Amino acid sequence: MATATTMNIVNRSATTAPMPVKSNPEISVAKLIDESKCIGCKACQVACMQWNDNRDEIGSTVGVYDNPADLTTKSWTVMRFNEVERADGGLDWLIRKDGCMHCEDPGCLKACPAPGAIVKYENGIVDFVKDNCIGCGYCVAGCPFNIPRISKTDHKAYKCSLCSDRVAVGEGAACAKACPTKAIRFGKKKDLVAWADQRVKDLKERGYQNAALYNPQGVGGTHVMYVLRHGDKPEAYNGLPSDPQISPTVNLWKGMTKTVLSWGMAAAVAVGVAHYFIKGPKEVDETEA
Amino acid sequence: MSQGNEVQRYATNERINHWFTAICFVLLAASGLAFFHPSFWSLSAVLGGGELSRFLHPILGVLMFLSFFIFAIQKMGDNMMKSYDWQWMGRIGDVLANRDDNMPEIGKYNAAQKLMYWFTFLFMILLLVSGIVIWRQFFSHNFAIDTIRWAAVVHAVAGVLLIITIIVHIYAAIWVKGTMSAITKGTVSRAWAKHHHPLWYRSLGNK
Predict the structure, then answer these.
(1) Is A218 contained in some domain?
(2) Residue of A16, A135, A285 lying closest to B39 (CB–CB)
(3) Prediction pTM value
């Protein structure tokens, strides 16, 4: 990723006009997070804060390593630590770098009512455009991964941008650059999928029979992918959904409901106008009383 | 109460109440439609843009609900469906065709108005409850994500159904001549009252 890439928009929230550019698998980028290599050092969190100039409130410990305890408007990525008992009685200490998954079919974008507040670029990155955001929080309802956070100060939505500003000038994501074990890689999605397949094969040879690439097809695949040692149980990684999809409720809300009811309103007006022309006004003979 | 050729239908405070609710409704419908479908986005300008719409819409919503509710409680007794109302409803075809002879005698409101009252009542409550759940700034964090998603659907559906109900309400006032003065000046003609609402007209001491 040494060259600058185009940042053409292929999908724009609350926009009915079709976009002239389609998603391009050739320039599609991704971040691959190899959970088996992650040591939980949080260098990625620091790099994210540093590059994006985010300084979160100083929090307090909640008894686990997670710090901060959750994603916030200023902490766009958080290491999630989970202790999981294995069937053989052993204990797995699972660490997952949480943050926006950059879905190929983004639920946030589907739910967003503000034109251009959420965009998806030709390379697959899903970005929030602050100037267009109105702070309604519909993206929170649309997201299958519980990622967007709404600011208590400016009431706008925030999440990982996949360092779209860096990618635009040919740099990779800041978190990938800072990762000391190369557990986080940034590059072209097709290269990383191939790399992950090899990595999964290696892990299987080392006894992790269920190792797998997490690139969920329910949301059209993601531009943040995981290599999981326990690929059969993504939920063990702090509730990572095994088959994430845009909720059917959100599809109902942003699909049929919108179209049918809009025509319903138009029909109500049309019926009124037609009735008036056909049947005429109802008048009372004023001499009746 | 009646003077000359006119009878009082709505007191001053009732008319103020009605128009306050109506103004809230128009502003809410405009900003709500902007959120509902991108084709209506330009209506977000009514409240001064997307962000202001997002901020003001729920506040206006609460005001509309309170205003409507004060009115609705006062009018509840007049809006209970009676047996003659169902008979009247059975002849809705004649009403729509302007064949008003020998209609069953009815009170202050006809069956269609009463049903509209109850639909409006239902949609207002649905909008209030679902609106609180999706009011991100103050309340959404108290609810589960699926509750929020369903509330968004309920709010959208109830909102549009209320708009359709109000379209019918406004059309009825345009179609039935002599109606509008009831909510502007507060009075209607004796002929109008006797023709459309005979039981109510007689209950005022008229013959």
Answers:
(1) no
(2) A16
(3) 0.93
